[in-house]
Here is the input.
Amino acid sequence: MDVRPVRRERRHTLYFLGDLRRFSPVHLDTEVDMSAVLRHREAAARTGRRYSVVSYVLHAGGRTLAAHPEANAAIGGRLRQKIARFTSVSGKLTLDRTLSGQRVVLAAVLPGLERATLDEIQAVVDQYRDGDPETMPQFAGTRALHRLPAPVARAAYRRASAPLGRRAAVRGTFSVTSLGHRPVDGFHSVGGTTITLGVGQIAERPVVREGAVTTAPLLRLSLTFDHRVIDGAEAADVLADLRTALETVGAEEVPAGRATSGPAAGALDDVPAEVLEGQPR
Here is the structure.
């Protein structure tokens, strides 16, 4: 048995998890027909543009949370708890990166998602995907925590993330985490925000449409919500609206003669492999 201290590079994750002990999670999930998203990605790829699945989720999430201000909120305080409702939507995206030789989870916060275009969102996702976490200024605070003694770092983390006034900038107002690049159908995560979305893989699955069995590219989309802030009915409305937003992506751009909504049999068949493989999900 080899026993060693926790690597410094993972300490920020431990501090974050320690702060989640008061979170009251409830989990929902649904299946999303991604035919419209895949058609949109295919059309974009032909013009040299590349979109990640998480960019579509962030784009849909920004519009949806703006329409549900009760869920675009955070709770703070111990004895006298207060709820802050944010006027803008910031999405936190978790990233699988390597820092000082250690595989870690880092987080990027994308502000103003209620008005950001898909291209603008993808540009930021690309910046975080391609940048070096050892030198990126966005991760300077995380690197500084790793250099501090553990008790001091923990206190500094709480001072930076606990105040409601800083919550949107530090944690975002909703979170997106994806394991869709691996054979993971669904999972539930707590991202430190009232709403956390878990994105699994897109897979061709059997479905029943108009009494007949066909196939469609389905995504298992999970939603974990903090029951201290909202109730299940509100969370279900958010998930339903997210599903609708993803299933109607680019509907007005689909050429005449092509279905603009609903699944298509063999919808993955005419999508180039490079649109589906080898890209961040």
In short: The radius of gyration is 20 Å. Residues 103 and 245 are 33 Å apart (CA to CA). Confidence is low (pLDDT under 50) at residues 254-281. The longest helix spans residues 232-247.
